[in-house]
Amino acid sequence: MSQNKISLTPEQADALGRELDAIRERVIADLGDEDAAYIRRVIKTQRALEVGGRALLFAGVLPPAWLAGTAMLGLSKILDNMEIGHNVMHGQYDWMGDPAISGRSFEWDTACPADQWRHSHNYMHHTHTNIVGMDRDIGYGILRMSADQPWEPYFLGNPLYAFLLMVLFQYGVALHELETERIRGREIRLADKREVLRAIWTKTRRQTLKDYVAYPLLAGPIAPFVFTGNLSANLMRNVWSYMIIFCGHFPDGTQEFTVEEARDESRGMWYFRQVLGSANLTGGRLFHLLSGNLSHQIEHHLFPDVPARRYADIAPEVQEICERYGIPYNRGPLLRQFGTVVRKIVKLTFPGTASATNVAPLAAAA
């Protein structure tokens, strides 16, 4: 554990909670036509990119058509997963009353069943953010991403597992609810997850048949070009999603916590933990759109049900509040943040690794 711990008194934590609650309430009260038009415009753009990309892949024997079609299809999958699927399933647009974008029923274009995602991500991750032993996003049951995770020889493969998780990210996310780390530790049996496995298999089979069987068969003699285009588009989405998500949770400066340190925390201390366990990415409007606005991971962890398009507007206010309370506000460019993530993955391959950037803060003083 580092000696450079950060703490708030109960009074400070309560005041922090009131200030951040006020931001959320103000934004929720202001939601309206512009927000509804925005998400519908993004959905329309995503569908146009998918239709156009798949059409161009049917002319994929021509290299420019294949490249353009693959890029368009990859962008459509990124938008579907990041700015649409992830945010809609958080209930960010439930206030519209549109069943097509209901957070409780939306299904996205990826291998992970949406119902499982709503539990493992919306509940487990966002409730227990960066609490070692409770937040399964810490390593996805595959990697060692905290020095507080007990080392075992299995983790000598940390860099390899990280690379495989990156290129196969949709399948890593699909297996999230399987709790592979508990199966590996013999806490539970694979048979105990029979229903979870059935749902994963059903969704993965449907996605595989769509991208790698149905569309290639429709292309006839052009099938190899459509197959490789779909494969490349999925790879684009997987690598991009992995980088954005890992850079929002694990670069230098983010912290992990123990169960004891998060027990009986107040609303203000919950906010405190969200900021310390998150990091933002700097960039332009297109970058923020393609990241699903998870480039504002701090604001997303504070307000997961607020439409993500609003994060850029409230980020300066959140940063100013953090500065007043002496709370680090972690932000930086994608490549720099990702470089520190890679370094952490390599360091945690070996036993006895500790870092001042991945330890929990002191609880609020009594």
From TrEMBL:
GO terms for molecular function: oxidoreductase activity, acting on paired donors, with oxidation of a pair of donors resulting in the reduction of molecular oxygen to two molecules of water. The keyword Transmembrane helix applies. Residues 65-331 form the Fatty acid desaturase domain. It comes from Mycobacterium spongiae. The lineage of its organism: Bacteria, Bacillati, Actinomycetota, Actinomycetes, Mycobacteriales. Keywords: Membrane, Transmembrane, Transmembrane helix. GO terms for cellular component: membrane. This is Acyl-CoA desaturase. The chain crosses the membrane at residues 55-75, 160-178. It comes from the Bacteria. One of its GO terms (biological process) is lipid metabolic process. Signal peptide: none annotated.
